[in-house]
Amino acid sequence: MTTKEYLSQIYLLNVKVKTKRQQAAELRNSIAGISGIDYTGIKVQTTPTPKMQEAIDRLISLEERIAQEILEMEQKKEKIVSQINRLRSPLHIQILKMRYLDFFGWEEIAERTKYSVRQVYRLHENALREFRERNKI
After folding, report:
1. Which of 45, 72, 101, 134 qualifies as a FRET site for 128, CA 20 to 30 Å off?
2. How far apart are CA 69 and CA 65, in angstroms?
3. What ranges in the chain are assigned the alpha helix state H?
4. pLDDT 10s per residue in the chain (137 long)?
């Protein structure tokens, strides 16, 4: 695994969590839509239908997986922050945090650091090299 791939783990986990949250929202909406029929004046059984119960079970399972992935993401993030903070250069620390923890694009990093995009690329490469050396990645 390269240094970039190692640092990008947080982003990938974040994308997975967002995707699963969207799936959970869609599932919640479909569950709400299942009982959308007006039964006014009709005697109905109040226990969930098998289809609804299955959807509720899938939602609960999905939410448990989301919670596990969030925990995993927070643990990895904590470890990576600690590793980034070992760097000597405050500028390298700032660039790596903006890129891999705040998910900023190159232009945004350049604007915030007052460097050109090309210089940010160079600083980023230097930061990756220092990160790799300090953390034996």
Report:
1. 72
2. 6
3. 3-7, 9-34, 50-84, 90-100, 106-113, 117-135
4. 899 999 999 999 999 999 999 999 888 888 877 555 555 666 655 565 678 888 888 999 999 999 999 999 999 999 999 999 999 999 999 999 999 999 999 999 999 999 999 999 999 999 999 999 999 87
**Residue 129 CA neighbour count, 13 Å, CB half:** 6
Report whether 98 contacts 110 (CB < 8 A): no
- Cβ atoms < 10 Å from Cβ of 123: 20
- Return the C-alpha torsion angle 62, 68, 72, 74, nearest 10: 90
- Quote the CA–CA distance of 69 and 17 in Å, as a whole number: 7
Q: Tell me if 117 sits within 8 A of 107, measured CB to CB.
A: yes
Residues 6+ apart with CB under 8 A from 50: none
